[in-house]
Amino acid sequence: MQRITVYTLFFICNILAADSASIAWAKIYGNRSDLSYGESVDLTSDGGYIVTGYIDRFKNSNSKSLTYNNPVYLIRTDSNGDTLWTREYAVGVTSGKYYSVMQTADGGFIASGYFWPSEYNADICLIKTDSNGDTLWVKAYGTVDGGEEGYSVDQTHDGGFVVAGRTTYICSFGNIYLMRTDSLGDTLWTKIYQRGDAHSVRQTKNKGFIVSGFSADTATNSDYQLFLMHIDSLGDTLWTKTYGDTGQAEIGYSVQQTSDDGFIVCGSKGVGRQDKIYLLRTDSYGDTLWTKIYNWGAAYSVDQTSDGGFIVAGTNGYFYVMRTDSEGNVLWDKSYGHPTPDQRAKSVKQTKDGGYIAAGWGRLEPDSTGIHFLLIKYDTLSTGIKKDNSPKLGTIKENNLFYNYKGNIISINYTILYSSNVKLEVYNTQGKLVKVLVDRYMNSGSYTVKWNTKRDRRILVAGGVYFLKLSANGHTVSKKVTIVK
Protein backbone atom coordinates (compact mmCIF):
# COMPACT_ATOMS: atom_id res chain seq x y z
CA MET A 1 0.00 0.00 0.00
CA GLN A 2 1.35 3.41 -0.94
CA ARG A 3 2.29 5.66 1.91
CA ILE A 4 0.25 8.84 2.22
CA THR A 5 2.33 11.82 3.28
CA VAL A 6 0.87 14.72 5.26
CA TYR A 7 2.19 18.27 4.98
CA THR A 8 1.29 20.95 7.48
CA LEU A 9 0.80 24.32 5.81
CA PHE A 10 2.43 27.08 7.82
CA PHE A 11 1.43 29.82 5.40
CA ILE A 12 -1.78 31.56 4.47
CA CYS A 13 -2.20 33.24 1.11
CA ASN A 14 -2.23 37.02 0.89
CA ILE A 15 -5.99 37.09 0.47
CA LEU A 16 -6.31 35.81 4.03
CA ALA A 17 -3.59 37.88 5.63
CA ALA A 18 -6.00 40.18 7.43
CA ASP A 19 -7.81 37.24 9.06
CA SER A 20 -5.09 34.64 9.42
CA ALA A 21 -6.00 34.03 13.07
CA SER A 22 -9.31 32.55 11.91
CA ILE A 23 -7.53 29.47 10.59
CA ALA A 24 -6.28 27.15 13.34
CA TRP A 25 -4.43 24.89 10.90
CA ALA A 26 -4.45 23.65 7.33
CA LYS A 27 -3.14 20.28 6.14
CA ILE A 28 -2.66 18.51 2.87
CA TYR A 29 -2.67 14.73 2.47
CA GLY A 30 -1.01 12.72 -0.27
CA ASN A 31 2.10 12.94 -2.38
CA ARG A 32 2.77 16.18 -4.20
CA SER A 33 3.18 14.23 -7.45
CA ASP A 34 -0.41 12.98 -7.27
CA LEU A 35 -3.66 14.74 -7.98
CA SER A 36 -5.54 14.08 -4.74
CA TYR A 37 -9.07 15.15 -3.90
CA GLY A 38 -10.91 15.40 -0.57
CA GLU A 39 -14.63 14.77 -0.80
CA SER A 40 -16.12 14.39 2.69
CA VAL A 41 -15.35 14.93 6.40
CA ASP A 42 -17.12 13.88 9.59
CA LEU A 43 -16.40 14.34 13.28
CA THR A 44 -15.24 11.30 15.27
CA SER A 45 -16.13 10.40 18.82
CA ASP A 46 -12.64 11.23 20.12
CA GLY A 47 -12.72 14.81 18.82
CA GLY A 48 -10.81 14.04 15.63
CA TYR A 49 -11.93 13.65 12.02
CA ILE A 50 -12.54 11.03 9.35
CA VAL A 51 -12.06 12.10 5.74
CA THR A 52 -12.41 10.36 2.41
CA GLY A 53 -11.17 11.11 -1.07
CA TYR A 54 -9.37 9.63 -4.03
CA ILE A 55 -6.13 9.89 -6.00
CA ASP A 56 -6.29 10.55 -9.74
CA ARG A 57 -3.34 8.53 -11.00
CA PHE A 58 -2.52 7.08 -14.42
CA LYS A 59 -2.13 3.30 -14.19
CA ASN A 60 0.06 3.16 -17.27
CA SER A 61 1.19 6.51 -18.65
CA ASN A 62 2.94 4.82 -21.63
CA SER A 63 -0.19 3.14 -22.89
CA LYS A 64 -1.88 4.54 -25.96
CA SER A 65 -5.29 3.84 -24.42
CA LEU A 66 -4.83 5.25 -20.95
CA THR A 67 -6.71 3.60 -18.10
CA TYR A 68 -7.02 5.24 -14.74
CA ASN A 69 -6.29 3.63 -11.40
CA ASN A 70 -7.94 5.86 -8.83
CA PRO A 71 -7.43 4.33 -5.39
CA VAL A 72 -9.83 5.65 -2.77
CA TYR A 73 -8.82 6.14 0.80
CA LEU A 74 -9.94 6.95 4.31
CA ILE A 75 -7.81 9.04 6.65
CA ARG A 76 -8.45 9.34 10.37
CA THR A 77 -6.87 12.26 12.17
CA ASP A 78 -6.69 13.66 15.68
CA SER A 79 -8.14 17.07 16.59
CA ASN A 80 -5.08 18.79 15.09
CA GLY A 81 -5.38 17.05 11.73
CA ASP A 82 -2.40 14.77 12.37
CA THR A 83 -2.86 11.34 10.81
CA LEU A 84 -3.75 8.42 13.08
CA TRP A 85 -4.07 6.00 10.19
CA THR A 86 -4.59 5.88 6.43
CA ARG A 87 -6.31 3.09 4.52
CA GLU A 88 -6.14 2.88 0.75
CA TYR A 89 -8.63 0.71 -1.09
CA ALA A 90 -8.10 -0.33 -4.70
CA VAL A 91 -11.49 -0.77 -6.34
CA GLY A 92 -12.46 -1.77 -9.85
CA VAL A 93 -10.36 -2.36 -12.92
CA THR A 94 -10.22 1.28 -14.00
CA SER A 95 -11.25 3.88 -11.45
CA GLY A 96 -13.24 4.58 -8.34
CA LYS A 97 -14.33 7.51 -6.21
CA TYR A 98 -15.75 7.86 -2.71
CA TYR A 99 -17.94 10.90 -2.19
CA SER A 100 -19.33 10.49 1.34
CA VAL A 101 -18.14 9.18 4.71
CA MET A 102 -19.51 9.19 8.25
CA GLN A 103 -18.83 7.59 11.59
CA THR A 104 -21.38 4.92 12.44
CA ALA A 105 -23.07 4.22 15.77
CA ASP A 106 -20.68 1.31 16.47
CA GLY A 107 -17.64 3.60 16.20
CA GLY A 108 -16.66 2.39 12.72
CA PHE A 109 -17.15 4.10 9.38
CA ILE A 110 -19.26 3.86 6.23
CA ALA A 111 -18.24 5.33 2.87
CA SER A 112 -20.12 5.43 -0.43
CA GLY A 113 -19.11 6.09 -4.01
CA TYR A 114 -18.67 4.04 -7.15
CA PHE A 115 -16.20 1.84 -8.98
CA TRP A 116 -15.93 0.30 -12.42
CA PRO A 117 -16.13 -3.52 -12.32
CA SER A 118 -15.73 -3.44 -16.10
CA GLU A 119 -14.84 -0.85 -18.70
CA TYR A 120 -18.50 -0.23 -19.52
CA ASN A 121 -20.64 0.51 -16.46
CA ALA A 122 -20.06 1.73 -12.92
CA ASP A 123 -21.55 0.23 -9.76
CA ILE A 124 -22.34 1.86 -6.43
CA CYS A 125 -19.86 0.79 -3.78
CA LEU A 126 -20.36 0.75 0.00
CA ILE A 127 -17.48 -0.03 2.34
CA LYS A 128 -17.96 -0.61 6.08
CA THR A 129 -14.91 -0.53 8.33
CA ASP A 130 -14.18 -0.81 12.01
CA SER A 131 -12.72 2.08 14.03
CA ASN A 132 -9.22 1.27 12.71
CA GLY A 133 -10.27 1.41 9.06
CA ASP A 134 -10.06 -2.36 8.61
CA THR A 135 -12.68 -3.60 6.17
CA LEU A 136 -15.70 -5.40 7.64
CA TRP A 137 -17.51 -5.71 4.34
CA VAL A 138 -17.62 -4.23 0.84
CA LYS A 139 -20.73 -4.36 -1.32
CA ALA A 140 -21.36 -3.42 -4.94
CA TYR A 141 -24.81 -2.55 -6.29
CA GLY A 142 -25.81 -2.12 -9.88
CA THR A 143 -27.91 -3.17 -12.84
CA VAL A 144 -26.75 -5.29 -15.74
CA ASP A 145 -27.66 -2.76 -18.41
CA GLY A 146 -26.94 0.48 -16.57
CA GLY A 147 -24.39 2.32 -14.49
CA GLU A 148 -24.93 3.51 -10.92
CA GLU A 149 -23.06 6.02 -8.75
CA GLY A 150 -23.60 6.71 -5.04
CA TYR A 151 -23.02 10.33 -4.02
CA SER A 152 -24.33 10.38 -0.44
CA VAL A 153 -24.81 7.93 2.44
CA ASP A 154 -26.55 8.24 5.80
CA GLN A 155 -27.04 5.73 8.59
CA THR A 156 -30.67 4.92 9.36
CA HIS A 157 -32.29 4.65 12.78
CA ASP A 158 -32.16 0.84 12.62
CA GLY A 159 -28.41 0.73 11.96
CA GLY A 160 -28.73 0.27 8.20
CA PHE A 161 -27.89 2.71 5.44
CA VAL A 162 -29.51 4.80 2.72
CA VAL A 163 -27.64 5.86 -0.44
CA ALA A 164 -28.55 8.50 -3.02
CA GLY A 165 -27.16 8.79 -6.53
CA ARG A 166 -27.99 8.15 -10.15
CA THR A 167 -28.60 5.28 -12.57
CA THR A 168 -28.44 5.01 -16.35
CA TYR A 169 -30.59 1.87 -16.38
CA ILE A 170 -33.56 3.64 -18.00
CA CYS A 171 -31.72 6.18 -20.12
CA SER A 172 -28.11 7.20 -20.68
CA PHE A 173 -28.74 10.67 -19.25
CA GLY A 174 -29.55 9.26 -15.83
CA ASN A 175 -32.36 9.00 -13.29
CA ILE A 176 -32.54 9.73 -9.57
CA TYR A 177 -31.66 6.56 -7.65
CA LEU A 178 -32.16 5.61 -4.00
CA MET A 179 -31.36 2.39 -2.19
CA ARG A 180 -31.65 1.22 1.40
CA THR A 181 -29.71 -1.58 3.06
CA ASP A 182 -29.55 -3.31 6.41
CA SER A 183 -26.54 -3.04 8.73
CA LEU A 184 -24.65 -5.68 6.70
CA GLY A 185 -25.18 -3.91 3.40
CA ASP A 186 -27.86 -6.29 2.10
CA THR A 187 -30.41 -4.48 -0.04
CA LEU A 188 -33.85 -3.78 1.46
CA TRP A 189 -35.17 -1.78 -1.49
CA THR A 190 -34.12 0.27 -4.50
CA LYS A 191 -36.10 3.04 -6.19
CA ILE A 192 -35.71 4.84 -9.51
CA TYR A 193 -37.42 8.23 -9.78
CA GLN A 194 -37.57 11.01 -12.38
CA ARG A 195 -34.83 12.11 -14.76
CA GLY A 196 -31.90 13.72 -12.92
CA ASP A 197 -29.36 13.10 -10.13
CA ALA A 198 -29.69 12.79 -6.34
CA HIS A 199 -26.68 14.38 -4.64
CA SER A 200 -27.70 14.28 -0.97
CA VAL A 201 -29.90 12.23 1.35
CA ARG A 202 -30.60 12.49 5.09
CA GLN A 203 -32.97 10.65 7.38
CA THR A 204 -35.70 12.90 8.76
CA LYS A 205 -37.23 13.02 12.22
CA ASN A 206 -40.23 10.96 11.06
CA LYS A 207 -37.81 8.19 9.97
CA GLY A 208 -38.35 8.99 6.31
CA PHE A 209 -35.76 10.65 4.08
CA ILE A 210 -35.16 14.02 2.45
CA VAL A 211 -33.37 13.99 -0.91
CA SER A 212 -31.94 16.81 -3.00
CA GLY A 213 -30.27 17.13 -6.39
CA PHE A 214 -31.61 18.19 -9.75
CA SER A 215 -34.39 17.01 -12.01
CA ALA A 216 -34.40 17.45 -15.78
CA ASP A 217 -36.99 17.74 -18.51
CA THR A 218 -37.74 14.23 -19.75
CA ALA A 219 -38.06 15.22 -23.40
CA THR A 220 -34.94 17.37 -23.72
CA ASN A 221 -32.72 16.21 -20.80
CA SER A 222 -32.24 19.90 -20.03
CA ASP A 223 -33.82 22.68 -17.95
CA TYR A 224 -32.27 21.50 -14.70
CA GLN A 225 -34.20 22.43 -11.56
CA LEU A 226 -33.23 21.91 -7.94
CA PHE A 227 -35.57 19.42 -6.34
CA LEU A 228 -36.49 18.35 -2.83
CA MET A 229 -38.17 14.99 -2.36
CA HIS A 230 -39.52 13.72 0.95
CA ILE A 231 -40.03 9.95 0.99
CA ASP A 232 -41.19 7.53 3.66
CA SER A 233 -39.15 4.67 5.14
CA LEU A 234 -40.05 2.44 2.16
CA GLY A 235 -38.97 4.96 -0.46
CA ASP A 236 -42.49 6.00 -1.45
CA THR A 237 -42.86 9.68 -2.24
CA LEU A 238 -44.62 11.93 0.29
CA TRP A 239 -44.03 15.11 -1.72
CA THR A 240 -41.69 16.52 -4.36
CA LYS A 241 -40.94 20.19 -5.01
CA THR A 242 -38.83 21.84 -7.69
CA TYR A 243 -37.27 25.29 -7.47
CA GLY A 244 -35.85 27.56 -10.11
CA ASP A 245 -36.50 29.46 -13.30
CA THR A 246 -37.01 28.10 -16.78
CA GLY A 247 -33.79 28.14 -18.78
CA GLN A 248 -31.55 28.59 -15.74
CA ALA A 249 -29.95 25.49 -14.25
CA GLU A 250 -30.36 24.97 -10.49
CA ILE A 251 -28.69 22.06 -8.70
CA GLY A 252 -28.90 21.02 -5.04
CA TYR A 253 -25.73 19.42 -3.68
CA SER A 254 -26.47 19.14 0.05
CA VAL A 255 -29.59 19.05 2.22
CA GLN A 256 -30.15 18.99 5.97
CA GLN A 257 -33.23 19.05 8.17
CA THR A 258 -33.23 22.18 10.31
CA SER A 259 -34.07 22.48 13.99
CA ASP A 260 -37.57 23.77 13.14
CA ASP A 261 -38.27 20.61 11.04
CA GLY A 262 -37.80 22.46 7.77
CA PHE A 263 -34.91 22.02 5.34
CA ILE A 264 -31.83 23.91 4.15
CA VAL A 265 -30.34 23.19 0.71
CA CYS A 266 -27.19 24.57 -0.90
CA GLY A 267 -26.13 24.35 -4.51
CA SER A 268 -25.72 26.45 -7.62
CA LYS A 269 -28.00 28.59 -9.74
CA GLY A 270 -27.39 29.64 -13.30
CA VAL A 271 -27.57 33.42 -13.65
CA GLY A 272 -26.88 34.50 -17.21
CA ARG A 273 -23.78 32.55 -18.24
CA GLN A 274 -22.49 32.12 -14.70
CA ASP A 275 -23.24 29.71 -11.89
CA LYS A 276 -23.72 31.36 -8.51
CA ILE A 277 -23.80 30.04 -4.95
CA TYR A 278 -27.39 29.27 -4.00
CA LEU A 279 -29.03 28.74 -0.61
CA LEU A 280 -32.67 27.72 -0.13
CA ARG A 281 -34.62 27.31 3.11
CA THR A 282 -38.05 25.70 3.28
CA ASP A 283 -40.63 24.69 5.84
CA SER A 284 -41.38 21.03 6.62
CA TYR A 285 -43.55 20.74 3.48
CA GLY A 286 -40.92 22.13 1.13
CA ASP A 287 -42.56 25.53 0.76
CA THR A 288 -39.96 28.26 0.34
CA LEU A 289 -39.14 30.47 3.33
CA TRP A 290 -36.30 32.31 1.58
CA THR A 291 -33.70 31.94 -1.15
CA LYS A 292 -30.32 33.63 -1.42
CA ILE A 293 -28.01 34.04 -4.42
CA TYR A 294 -24.41 34.96 -3.67
CA ASN A 295 -21.21 35.43 -5.67
CA TRP A 296 -19.97 33.35 -8.60
CA GLY A 297 -19.40 29.67 -7.82
CA ALA A 298 -21.24 26.74 -6.24
CA ALA A 299 -21.97 25.42 -2.74
CA TYR A 300 -21.48 21.71 -2.07
CA SER A 301 -22.11 21.31 1.66
CA VAL A 302 -24.21 23.01 4.35
CA ASP A 303 -24.47 22.46 8.10
CA GLN A 304 -26.75 24.24 10.57
CA THR A 305 -24.78 25.87 13.37
CA SER A 306 -25.58 25.92 17.07
CA ASP A 307 -27.03 29.45 16.87
CA GLY A 308 -29.43 28.51 14.06
CA GLY A 309 -27.28 29.92 11.27
CA PHE A 310 -25.41 28.00 8.59
CA ILE A 311 -21.88 27.15 7.51
CA VAL A 312 -21.44 26.53 3.78
CA ALA A 313 -18.56 25.04 1.76
CA GLY A 314 -18.03 25.53 -1.95
CA THR A 315 -15.99 27.28 -4.60
CA ASN A 316 -15.55 30.79 -5.96
CA GLY A 317 -12.37 29.83 -7.76
CA TYR A 318 -10.83 29.18 -4.35
CA PHE A 319 -11.39 26.76 -1.46
CA TYR A 320 -14.36 28.72 -0.10
CA VAL A 321 -16.23 28.73 3.23
CA MET A 322 -19.14 31.06 4.08
CA ARG A 323 -20.96 31.65 7.36
CA THR A 324 -24.53 33.02 7.44
CA ASP A 325 -27.19 33.82 10.00
CA SER A 326 -30.53 32.01 10.11
CA GLU A 327 -31.87 34.22 7.30
CA GLY A 328 -28.97 33.51 4.97
CA ASN A 329 -27.25 36.87 5.47
CA VAL A 330 -23.47 36.57 5.18
CA LEU A 331 -21.58 37.04 8.47
CA TRP A 332 -18.17 36.24 6.97
CA ASP A 333 -16.57 34.28 4.16
CA LYS A 334 -13.05 33.00 3.59
CA SER A 335 -11.15 31.98 0.46
CA TYR A 336 -8.01 29.85 0.42
CA GLY A 337 -5.51 28.92 -2.28
CA HIS A 338 -4.36 30.42 -5.57
CA PRO A 339 -6.90 31.62 -8.14
CA THR A 340 -7.72 28.75 -10.49
CA PRO A 341 -11.11 27.30 -11.47
CA ASP A 342 -10.56 23.82 -10.00
CA GLN A 343 -10.45 24.46 -6.25
CA ARG A 344 -13.28 23.43 -3.96
CA ALA A 345 -14.33 23.01 -0.37
CA LYS A 346 -16.58 19.95 -0.71
CA SER A 347 -17.64 19.25 2.89
CA VAL A 348 -17.98 21.24 6.11
CA LYS A 349 -19.11 20.59 9.70
CA GLN A 350 -19.33 22.63 12.85
CA THR A 351 -16.94 21.21 15.45
CA LYS A 352 -17.71 20.65 19.11
CA ASP A 353 -15.53 23.64 20.10
CA GLY A 354 -17.71 25.96 18.01
CA GLY A 355 -15.27 26.11 15.09
CA TYR A 356 -15.53 24.50 11.67
CA ILE A 357 -13.76 21.76 9.73
CA ALA A 358 -13.76 21.72 5.91
CA ALA A 359 -12.38 19.21 3.39
CA GLY A 360 -11.76 19.61 -0.31
CA TRP A 361 -8.87 20.35 -2.63
CA GLY A 362 -6.78 23.27 -3.78
CA ARG A 363 -3.81 24.48 -5.75
CA LEU A 364 -1.13 25.69 -3.38
CA GLU A 365 1.39 27.30 -5.73
CA PRO A 366 0.90 29.75 -8.62
CA ASP A 367 0.80 28.05 -12.03
CA SER A 368 1.09 24.67 -10.33
CA THR A 369 -0.41 21.62 -11.99
CA GLY A 370 -0.75 19.86 -8.63
CA ILE A 371 -4.09 19.48 -6.85
CA HIS A 372 -3.96 18.55 -3.18
CA PHE A 373 -6.38 17.11 -0.65
CA LEU A 374 -7.00 19.89 1.90
CA LEU A 375 -8.36 19.78 5.45
CA ILE A 376 -8.74 23.18 7.13
CA LYS A 377 -9.81 23.91 10.70
CA TYR A 378 -11.35 27.32 11.34
CA ASP A 379 -11.50 28.85 14.80
CA THR A 380 -14.67 30.56 15.91
CA LEU A 381 -14.80 33.97 14.30
CA SER A 382 -16.29 37.18 15.66
CA THR A 383 -19.16 38.51 13.57
CA GLY A 384 -18.93 41.99 15.03
CA ILE A 385 -21.84 41.32 17.38
CA LYS A 386 -20.93 41.78 21.03
CA LYS A 387 -21.89 38.74 23.06
CA ASP A 388 -23.11 39.31 26.62
CA ASN A 389 -21.74 36.47 28.74
CA SER A 390 -23.34 37.61 31.97
CA PRO A 391 -25.75 35.13 33.61
CA LYS A 392 -29.34 35.30 32.41
CA LEU A 393 -32.40 34.37 34.43
CA GLY A 394 -33.75 31.07 33.18
CA THR A 395 -30.55 30.09 31.35
CA ILE A 396 -28.59 27.04 32.46
CA LYS A 397 -25.53 25.76 30.64
CA GLU A 398 -23.54 22.66 31.44
CA ASN A 399 -21.73 20.17 29.23
CA ASN A 400 -23.76 19.56 26.07
CA LEU A 401 -27.30 20.57 27.07
CA PHE A 402 -28.69 23.99 27.94
CA TYR A 403 -31.95 25.86 27.53
CA ASN A 404 -33.39 29.34 27.44
CA TYR A 405 -36.86 30.00 28.83
CA LYS A 406 -38.62 33.10 27.51
CA GLY A 407 -42.34 33.56 27.76
CA ASN A 408 -43.95 30.23 26.89
CA ILE A 409 -41.09 29.08 24.67
CA ILE A 410 -38.26 26.88 25.92
CA SER A 411 -35.37 26.82 23.42
CA ILE A 412 -33.20 23.78 24.07
CA ASN A 413 -29.71 23.59 22.59
CA TYR A 414 -27.74 20.35 22.68
CA THR A 415 -24.57 18.93 21.17
CA ILE A 416 -24.04 15.34 20.01
CA LEU A 417 -20.35 14.48 20.13
CA TYR A 418 -20.69 11.74 17.55
CA SER A 419 -23.42 10.15 15.47
CA SER A 420 -25.86 7.98 17.41
CA ASN A 421 -29.49 7.46 18.36
CA VAL A 422 -30.66 10.50 20.33
CA LYS A 423 -33.58 11.01 22.72
CA LEU A 424 -34.59 14.31 24.29
CA GLU A 425 -37.46 13.87 26.73
CA VAL A 426 -39.38 15.85 29.34
CA TYR A 427 -40.32 14.29 32.69
CA ASN A 428 -42.27 15.62 35.67
CA THR A 429 -41.22 15.30 39.32
CA GLN A 430 -43.03 11.94 39.61
CA GLY A 431 -40.81 10.49 36.88
CA LYS A 432 -43.68 10.37 34.37
CA LEU A 433 -42.82 11.03 30.72
CA VAL A 434 -44.49 14.28 29.66
CA LYS A 435 -43.19 14.74 26.11
CA VAL A 436 -40.68 13.34 23.63
CA LEU A 437 -38.99 16.23 21.82
CA VAL A 438 -36.42 14.22 19.82
CA ASP A 439 -36.20 10.49 19.06
CA ARG A 440 -34.08 9.63 16.03
CA TYR A 441 -30.64 8.84 14.73
CA MET A 442 -28.58 12.03 14.41
CA ASN A 443 -25.22 12.99 13.00
CA SER A 444 -22.67 14.62 15.26
CA GLY A 445 -23.20 18.36 15.70
CA SER A 446 -25.17 21.02 17.56
CA TYR A 447 -28.96 21.29 17.41
CA THR A 448 -31.83 23.42 18.71
CA VAL A 449 -35.42 22.41 19.42
CA LYS A 450 -38.22 24.67 20.68
CA TRP A 451 -41.00 23.62 23.04
CA ASN A 452 -44.06 25.86 23.25
CA THR A 453 -45.44 25.00 26.68
CA LYS A 454 -48.66 26.91 26.05
CA ARG A 455 -49.62 25.59 22.64
CA ASP A 456 -48.69 21.97 23.05
CA ARG A 457 -51.71 20.25 21.48
CA ARG A 458 -51.10 16.82 22.97
CA ILE A 459 -50.90 17.72 26.65
CA LEU A 460 -51.77 20.51 29.04
CA VAL A 461 -48.51 21.74 30.49
CA ALA A 462 -49.07 22.93 34.05
CA GLY A 463 -46.72 25.16 35.94
CA GLY A 464 -44.11 23.42 38.05
CA VAL A 465 -40.77 21.65 37.93
CA TYR A 466 -39.80 19.47 34.96
CA PHE A 467 -36.65 17.69 33.87
CA LEU A 468 -35.06 17.67 30.41
CA LYS A 469 -33.29 14.38 29.74
CA LEU A 470 -30.84 14.01 26.82
CA SER A 471 -29.71 10.45 26.02
CA ALA A 472 -27.01 9.92 23.38
CA ASN A 473 -23.88 7.83 22.88
CA GLY A 474 -24.67 5.80 26.02
CA HIS A 475 -24.63 8.93 28.20
CA THR A 476 -27.42 10.92 29.84
CA VAL A 477 -27.55 14.59 30.78
CA SER A 478 -30.48 16.08 32.72
CA LYS A 479 -31.52 19.65 33.44
CA LYS A 480 -34.23 20.99 35.70
CA VAL A 481 -36.60 23.66 34.36
CA THR A 482 -39.34 25.50 36.24
CA ILE A 483 -42.38 26.53 34.23
CA VAL A 484 -44.28 29.49 35.63
CA LYS A 485 -47.93 29.83 34.60
What report would you give on this structure?
With 485 residues, the chain is mainly β. It has 2 domains: 6-378, Methylamine Dehydrogenase, Chain H (7 Propeller); 395-483, Immunoglobulin-like, CATH 2.60.40. Helices cover 0% and strands 56% of the residues. The chain has no helices and 36 strands. The chain has strands at 6-8, 23-29, 35-43, 49-56, 72-77, 83-89, 96-103, 109-115, 123-129, 135-141, 148-155, 161-167, 175-181, 187-203, 209-215, 225-231, 237-243, 250-257, 263-271, 274-282, 288-296, 298-304, 310-315, 319-324, 330-336, 344-350, 356-362, 372-378, 395-398, 401-406, 409-416, 420-428, 433-442, 445-452, 464-472, 475-483. Strands 11-12-13-14-15-16-17 form a 7-stranded antiparallel sheet, with no helix packed on it. Strands 1-2-28-27-26 form a 5-stranded antiparallel sheet, with no helix packed on it. Strands 3-4-5-6 form a 4-stranded antiparallel sheet, with no helix packed on it. Strand 11 (148-155) and strand 12 (161-167) form a beta hairpin. The N and C termini lie far apart (66 Å).
